[in-house]
Amino acid sequence: MVAVTIGIVRLRNLFAVVMLGGIYSFLMATILYVLDAVDVSMTEAAVGAGISTVLLLATLAVTKVREAAPIHPPALPLAVALVTGAALIYASVDMPPFGDPLGPGHQHVAPEYIARVLPETHIPNAVTSVLASYRGYDTLGETTVIFTAGIGVLALLVGRRRPRRSDGASGGGNA
Amino acid sequence: MEVLANINQWVTIFLMVAGLYIVVARGNMVKKLIGLGVFQTSVYLLYISPGKIIGGTAPIISPDFTVYSNPLPHVLILTAIVVGVATLAVGLALVVRINEAYDSIEEDEIYAQEHDA
Known about the structure:
heterodimer; A: mainly alpha; about 0% strand; extended; disordered C terminus; B: mainly alpha; Helix Hairpins
Protein backbone atom coordinates (compact mmCIF):
# COMPACT_ATOMS: atom_id res chain seq x y z
CA MET A 1 0.00 0.00 0.00
CA VAL A 2 2.86 2.32 0.84
CA ALA A 3 4.51 1.44 -2.48
CA VAL A 4 1.32 2.16 -4.39
CA THR A 5 0.95 5.51 -2.64
CA ILE A 6 4.52 6.50 -3.47
CA GLY A 7 3.86 5.47 -7.07
CA ILE A 8 0.81 7.74 -7.16
CA VAL A 9 2.93 10.62 -5.90
CA ARG A 10 5.83 10.06 -8.30
CA LEU A 11 4.33 8.94 -11.61
CA ARG A 12 3.47 11.53 -14.21
CA ASN A 13 1.59 9.34 -16.67
CA LEU A 14 -1.95 9.98 -15.49
CA PHE A 15 -3.31 6.70 -16.91
CA ALA A 16 -0.86 4.79 -14.72
CA VAL A 17 -1.83 6.96 -11.77
CA VAL A 18 -5.52 6.22 -12.26
CA MET A 19 -4.80 2.48 -12.49
CA LEU A 20 -2.74 2.67 -9.29
CA GLY A 21 -5.66 4.53 -7.74
CA GLY A 22 -7.89 1.55 -8.51
CA ILE A 23 -5.38 -0.85 -6.94
CA TYR A 24 -5.14 1.49 -3.95
CA SER A 25 -8.91 1.47 -3.51
CA PHE A 26 -9.06 -2.33 -3.57
CA LEU A 27 -6.26 -2.51 -0.99
CA MET A 28 -8.14 -0.01 1.14
CA ALA A 29 -11.31 -2.11 0.80
CA THR A 30 -9.36 -5.17 1.97
CA ILE A 31 -8.03 -3.30 5.00
CA LEU A 32 -11.52 -2.07 5.87
CA TYR A 33 -12.77 -5.66 5.62
CA VAL A 34 -10.06 -6.81 8.02
CA LEU A 35 -11.14 -4.01 10.37
CA ASP A 36 -14.67 -5.57 10.46
CA ALA A 37 -16.23 -2.76 8.42
CA VAL A 38 -17.82 -5.02 5.81
CA ASP A 39 -20.41 -2.50 4.57
CA VAL A 40 -17.80 0.23 4.16
CA SER A 41 -15.49 -2.24 2.42
CA MET A 42 -18.09 -3.15 -0.18
CA THR A 43 -18.93 0.50 -0.79
CA GLU A 44 -15.28 1.43 -1.15
CA ALA A 45 -14.68 -1.40 -3.63
CA ALA A 46 -17.69 -0.38 -5.72
CA VAL A 47 -17.36 3.39 -5.50
CA GLY A 48 -13.63 3.96 -5.00
CA ALA A 49 -12.32 1.33 -7.39
CA GLY A 50 -15.28 1.32 -9.76
CA ILE A 51 -17.07 4.60 -10.26
CA SER A 52 -14.14 6.89 -9.40
CA THR A 53 -11.86 5.08 -11.85
CA VAL A 54 -14.47 5.30 -14.59
CA LEU A 55 -15.00 9.02 -13.97
CA LEU A 56 -11.25 9.71 -13.96
CA LEU A 57 -10.70 7.73 -17.16
CA ALA A 58 -13.59 9.53 -18.86
CA THR A 59 -12.01 12.85 -17.89
CA LEU A 60 -8.60 11.77 -19.15
CA ALA A 61 -10.20 10.80 -22.47
CA VAL A 62 -11.22 14.41 -23.09
CA THR A 63 -8.16 16.11 -21.49
CA LYS A 64 -4.41 15.45 -21.33
CA VAL A 65 -2.77 12.21 -20.30
CA ARG A 66 0.72 13.54 -19.53
CA GLU A 67 1.35 15.64 -16.46
CA ALA A 68 3.83 18.49 -17.02
CA ALA A 69 7.09 18.46 -15.09
CA PRO A 70 6.80 20.59 -11.96
CA ILE A 71 8.46 23.99 -12.24
CA HIS A 72 8.42 24.91 -8.57
CA PRO A 73 10.87 23.11 -6.28
CA PRO A 74 8.96 20.73 -4.00
CA ALA A 75 10.71 21.91 -0.82
CA LEU A 76 7.96 24.13 0.58
CA PRO A 77 5.03 21.70 0.10
CA LEU A 78 7.22 18.88 1.40
CA ALA A 79 8.04 20.91 4.49
CA VAL A 80 4.37 21.73 5.08
CA ALA A 81 3.41 18.07 4.69
CA LEU A 82 6.19 16.81 6.97
CA VAL A 83 5.43 19.34 9.71
CA THR A 84 1.77 18.33 9.57
CA GLY A 85 2.78 14.67 9.75
CA ALA A 86 5.07 15.24 12.71
CA ALA A 87 2.32 17.10 14.59
CA LEU A 88 -0.15 14.29 13.89
CA ILE A 89 2.31 11.59 15.04
CA TYR A 90 2.91 13.58 18.22
CA ALA A 91 -0.86 13.69 18.77
CA SER A 92 -1.31 9.98 18.01
CA VAL A 93 0.70 9.00 21.08
CA ASP A 94 -2.23 10.10 23.22
CA MET A 95 -4.77 7.98 21.34
CA PRO A 96 -6.03 4.76 22.93
CA PRO A 97 -4.18 1.64 21.73
CA PHE A 98 -5.45 -0.13 18.62
CA GLY A 99 -8.22 -2.67 19.19
CA ASP A 100 -8.65 -1.90 22.88
CA PRO A 101 -12.24 -2.67 23.95
CA LEU A 102 -11.90 -0.23 26.86
CA GLY A 103 -11.21 2.75 24.59
CA PRO A 104 -13.48 5.74 25.22
CA GLY A 105 -15.10 5.41 21.80
CA HIS A 106 -16.58 2.05 22.78
CA GLN A 107 -18.09 3.19 26.08
CA HIS A 108 -20.90 5.64 25.27
CA VAL A 109 -23.60 5.06 22.68
CA ALA A 110 -22.14 2.15 20.71
CA PRO A 111 -23.11 -0.61 23.20
CA GLU A 112 -26.52 1.02 23.50
CA TYR A 113 -27.09 0.82 19.74
CA ILE A 114 -25.85 -2.76 19.56
CA ALA A 115 -28.16 -3.79 22.37
CA ARG A 116 -31.24 -2.03 21.00
CA VAL A 117 -30.87 -2.69 17.27
CA LEU A 118 -32.50 -6.10 17.13
CA PRO A 119 -35.48 -5.48 19.44
CA GLU A 120 -36.29 -2.06 17.97
CA THR A 121 -35.69 -2.41 14.24
CA HIS A 122 -35.58 -6.19 13.63
CA ILE A 123 -32.61 -5.66 11.29
CA PRO A 124 -29.63 -7.76 12.38
CA ASN A 125 -27.08 -5.56 10.58
CA ALA A 126 -26.41 -2.69 12.99
CA VAL A 127 -24.88 -0.48 10.28
CA THR A 128 -27.97 -0.73 8.10
CA SER A 129 -30.36 -0.05 10.93
CA VAL A 130 -28.43 2.97 12.21
CA LEU A 131 -28.08 4.33 8.68
CA ALA A 132 -31.68 3.87 7.65
CA SER A 133 -33.63 4.01 10.91
CA TYR A 134 -31.90 6.00 13.65
CA ARG A 135 -30.12 8.42 11.32
CA GLY A 136 -32.53 8.39 8.39
CA TYR A 137 -32.47 12.16 8.04
CA ASP A 138 -28.69 12.08 7.55
CA THR A 139 -29.14 9.64 4.72
CA LEU A 140 -31.82 11.86 3.21
CA GLY A 141 -29.38 14.76 3.37
CA GLU A 142 -26.75 12.61 1.72
CA THR A 143 -29.03 11.81 -1.19
CA THR A 144 -29.72 15.54 -1.45
CA VAL A 145 -25.97 16.11 -1.78
CA ILE A 146 -25.76 13.51 -4.56
CA PHE A 147 -28.71 15.10 -6.33
CA THR A 148 -27.11 18.54 -6.09
CA ALA A 149 -23.82 17.16 -7.39
CA GLY A 150 -25.63 15.57 -10.32
CA ILE A 151 -27.33 18.86 -11.14
CA GLY A 152 -23.97 20.65 -10.86
CA VAL A 153 -22.27 18.23 -13.23
CA LEU A 154 -25.13 18.54 -15.71
CA ALA A 155 -25.07 22.34 -15.49
CA LEU A 156 -21.34 22.36 -16.14
CA LEU A 157 -21.25 19.91 -19.00
CA VAL A 158 -24.53 20.38 -20.89
CA GLY A 159 -24.65 23.18 -23.44
CA ARG A 160 -20.93 23.34 -24.08
CA ARG A 161 -19.85 25.34 -27.09
CA ARG A 162 -17.78 22.55 -28.59
CA PRO A 163 -19.75 19.41 -27.92
CA ARG A 164 -17.44 16.44 -27.59
CA ARG A 165 -17.74 13.16 -25.76
CA SER A 166 -20.03 13.69 -22.80
CA ASP A 167 -18.50 12.82 -19.46
CA GLY A 168 -19.52 12.61 -15.86
CA ALA A 169 -23.14 13.33 -16.62
CA SER A 170 -23.86 10.07 -14.86
CA GLY A 171 -22.75 11.74 -11.61
CA GLY A 172 -26.32 11.86 -10.39
CA GLY A 173 -26.77 8.12 -10.49
CA ASN A 174 -23.79 7.26 -8.37
CA ALA A 175 -25.50 6.56 -5.08
CA MET B 1 3.67 -4.60 21.12
CA GLU B 2 3.59 -1.38 23.13
CA VAL B 3 5.54 0.39 20.39
CA LEU B 4 3.05 -0.69 17.74
CA ALA B 5 -0.04 0.26 19.76
CA ASN B 6 -0.77 3.21 17.48
CA ILE B 7 0.32 1.64 14.18
CA ASN B 8 -3.12 2.25 12.69
CA GLN B 9 -2.80 5.97 13.38
CA TRP B 10 0.62 6.05 11.74
CA VAL B 11 -0.64 4.42 8.54
CA THR B 12 -3.45 6.96 8.52
CA ILE B 13 -0.98 9.80 9.04
CA PHE B 14 1.29 8.57 6.24
CA LEU B 15 -1.59 8.49 3.76
CA MET B 16 -2.85 11.85 4.96
CA VAL B 17 0.56 13.48 4.50
CA ALA B 18 0.97 11.89 1.05
CA GLY B 19 -2.44 13.19 -0.03
CA LEU B 20 -1.71 16.64 1.36
CA TYR B 21 1.62 16.73 -0.48
CA ILE B 22 0.00 15.81 -3.80
CA VAL B 23 -2.68 18.45 -3.39
CA VAL B 24 -0.20 21.19 -2.51
CA ALA B 25 2.77 20.32 -4.73
CA ARG B 26 1.25 19.12 -8.00
CA GLY B 27 -0.15 21.59 -10.51
CA ASN B 28 -2.06 19.05 -12.58
CA MET B 29 -5.72 19.18 -11.64
CA VAL B 30 -6.52 15.51 -12.21
CA LYS B 31 -3.53 14.61 -10.04
CA LYS B 32 -4.76 17.03 -7.39
CA LEU B 33 -8.17 15.32 -7.34
CA ILE B 34 -6.49 11.91 -6.97
CA GLY B 35 -4.47 13.32 -4.07
CA LEU B 36 -7.68 14.56 -2.51
CA GLY B 37 -8.99 11.00 -2.86
CA VAL B 38 -5.94 9.61 -1.04
CA PHE B 39 -6.50 12.14 1.74
CA GLN B 40 -10.16 11.11 1.92
CA THR B 41 -9.37 7.41 2.24
CA SER B 42 -6.94 8.23 5.05
CA VAL B 43 -9.85 9.84 6.87
CA TYR B 44 -11.84 6.61 6.38
CA LEU B 45 -9.04 4.76 8.15
CA LEU B 46 -8.89 7.43 10.85
CA TYR B 47 -12.54 6.76 11.69
CA ILE B 48 -12.79 3.02 11.11
CA SER B 49 -9.61 1.79 12.78
CA PRO B 50 -10.44 2.97 16.34
CA GLY B 51 -13.84 1.25 15.95
CA LYS B 52 -12.19 -2.16 15.69
CA ILE B 53 -12.05 -4.32 18.79
CA ILE B 54 -9.49 -7.12 18.69
CA GLY B 55 -11.48 -10.34 19.00
CA GLY B 56 -14.67 -8.64 17.92
CA THR B 57 -16.62 -9.24 14.73
CA ALA B 58 -18.56 -7.21 12.17
CA PRO B 59 -21.60 -5.48 13.69
CA ILE B 60 -24.21 -7.92 12.43
CA ILE B 61 -26.13 -9.14 15.44
CA SER B 62 -26.04 -12.89 15.82
CA PRO B 63 -26.46 -15.21 18.79
CA ASP B 64 -23.05 -16.73 18.06
CA PHE B 65 -21.10 -13.56 18.93
CA THR B 66 -21.06 -11.13 21.80
CA VAL B 67 -18.31 -8.64 20.88
CA TYR B 68 -18.89 -6.37 17.90
CA SER B 69 -16.85 -3.54 16.47
CA ASN B 70 -18.33 -0.07 16.77
CA PRO B 71 -21.00 0.44 14.05
CA LEU B 72 -21.22 4.23 14.27
CA PRO B 73 -17.99 5.09 12.39
CA HIS B 74 -19.05 2.67 9.66
CA VAL B 75 -22.26 4.61 9.15
CA LEU B 76 -20.45 7.95 9.03
CA ILE B 77 -17.88 6.70 6.55
CA LEU B 78 -20.50 5.15 4.27
CA THR B 79 -21.97 8.63 3.97
CA ALA B 80 -18.49 10.12 3.48
CA ILE B 81 -17.62 7.73 0.62
CA VAL B 82 -20.76 8.57 -1.31
CA VAL B 83 -20.37 12.31 -0.76
CA GLY B 84 -16.71 11.94 -1.79
CA VAL B 85 -17.60 10.49 -5.16
CA ALA B 86 -20.13 13.29 -5.68
CA THR B 87 -17.47 15.95 -5.08
CA LEU B 88 -15.07 14.03 -7.33
CA ALA B 89 -17.65 14.08 -10.12
CA VAL B 90 -18.18 17.83 -9.78
CA GLY B 91 -14.42 18.45 -9.64
CA LEU B 92 -13.81 16.40 -12.79
CA ALA B 93 -16.60 18.22 -14.59
CA LEU B 94 -14.88 21.50 -13.68
CA VAL B 95 -11.59 20.10 -15.00
CA VAL B 96 -13.26 19.23 -18.32
CA ARG B 97 -14.62 22.77 -18.64
CA ILE B 98 -11.27 24.33 -17.70
CA ASN B 99 -9.57 22.19 -20.32
CA GLU B 100 -12.01 23.49 -22.94
CA ALA B 101 -11.49 27.10 -21.95
CA TYR B 102 -7.68 27.07 -21.61
CA ASP B 103 -6.67 23.89 -23.45
CA SER B 104 -4.63 22.93 -20.40
CA ILE B 105 -5.15 21.31 -17.02
CA GLU B 106 -1.90 22.58 -15.50
CA GLU B 107 -2.29 25.39 -12.98
CA ASP B 108 0.97 27.08 -13.97
CA GLU B 109 0.11 27.20 -17.69
CA ILE B 110 -3.34 28.61 -16.95
CA TYR B 111 -1.81 31.23 -14.68
CA ALA B 112 0.70 32.19 -17.41
CA GLN B 113 -2.09 32.49 -20.00
CA GLU B 114 -4.10 34.73 -17.73
CA HIS B 115 -1.17 37.08 -17.21
CA ASP B 116 -0.08 37.21 -20.85
CA ALA B 117 -3.55 38.16 -22.01
